[in-house]
């Protein structure tokens, strides 16, 4: 059967392409596809996560003809609801836009988290960071995180944007805003969202500092190969 295989961040550069069509046996699972790629292209997928049709998958998941399989280095759904905004953007993140979405008479508390490019980092001056993301899946993960926060903390309005492209020290890379009728729920939901998103959203960082350029080491929140 034929699959569409997609690569991101360092994998795209090591393999030399963003996607390819791959013929595999009919009973292949994700791990078998990974081994074929490792053998044919001389790369290591150990420690990477996988997604099938934009949903995180285990190495044992069986595949079907036409499936899209994405291999994701460690990272540094459903339809949107009216009270949830999730997006991956290339433009600067704006607090006033988040305010316009979140502030409503019934919601007496708003909590925000803004993550910015830090310099120095690890004792080294950062020149810039290139952010690369898997946009359709990133948005789905954000929506799932928002729904989980709502199930735990009750009635919320949630605003999440992650910026991609080249960012310089002091520029915002992620903006999370939560509105709730009550202060404690807004604060705790905002904290829970950033803790979840920092390990699950498929966005990677290629950092340029005084010693050169390198991929920022990430973490995994799902089964790896």
UniProtKB/TrEMBL annotation:
Protein origin, superkingdom: Bacteria
InterPro entries for this protein: Beta-grasp_dom_sf, MoaE_sf, Mopterin_biosynth_MoaE, Mopterin_synth/thiamin_S_b, ThiS/MoaD-like
SUPFAM superfamilies: MoaD/ThiS, Molybdopterin synthase subunit MoaE
Gene3D superfamilies: 3.10.20.30, Molybdopterin biosynthesis MoaE subunit
Matches recorded under NCBIfam families: moaD (TIGR01682)
Name of this chain's protein: Molybdopterin converting factor subunit 1
Record organism: Deinococcus hohokamensis
């Amino acid at each position: 059967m034929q699959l569409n295989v997609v690569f991101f961040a360092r994998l795209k550069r090591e393999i030399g392409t963003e996607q390819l069509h791959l013929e595999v046996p009919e009973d292949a699972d994700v791990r078998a596809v990974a081994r074929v790629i490792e053998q044919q292209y001389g790369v290591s997928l150990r420690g990477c996560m996988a997604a099938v049709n934009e949903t995180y998958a285990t190495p044992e998941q069986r595949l079907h003809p036409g499936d899209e399989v994405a291999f994701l280095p460690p990272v540094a759904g459903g339809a949107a609801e009216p009270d949830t905004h999730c997006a991956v953007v290339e433009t600067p993140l704006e607090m006033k836009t988040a305010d316009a979405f979140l502030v409503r008479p019934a919601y007496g508390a708003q909590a925000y988290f803004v993550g910015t490019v830090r310099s120095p980092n690890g004792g080294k001056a950062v020149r810039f960071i290139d952010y690369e993301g898997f946009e359709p899946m990133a948005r789905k993960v954000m929506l799932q995180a928002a729904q989980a926060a709502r199930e735990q903390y009750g009635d919320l309005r949630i605003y999440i944007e992650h910026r991609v492209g080249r960012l310089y020290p002091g520029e915002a890379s992620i903006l999370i805003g939560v509105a709730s009728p009550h202060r404690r729920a807004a604060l705790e939901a905002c904290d829970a969202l950033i803790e979840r998103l920092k390990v699950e959203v498929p966005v990677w960082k290629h950092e340029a500092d005084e010693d050169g350029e390198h991929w920022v080491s990430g973490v995994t929140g799902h089964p790896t190969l």
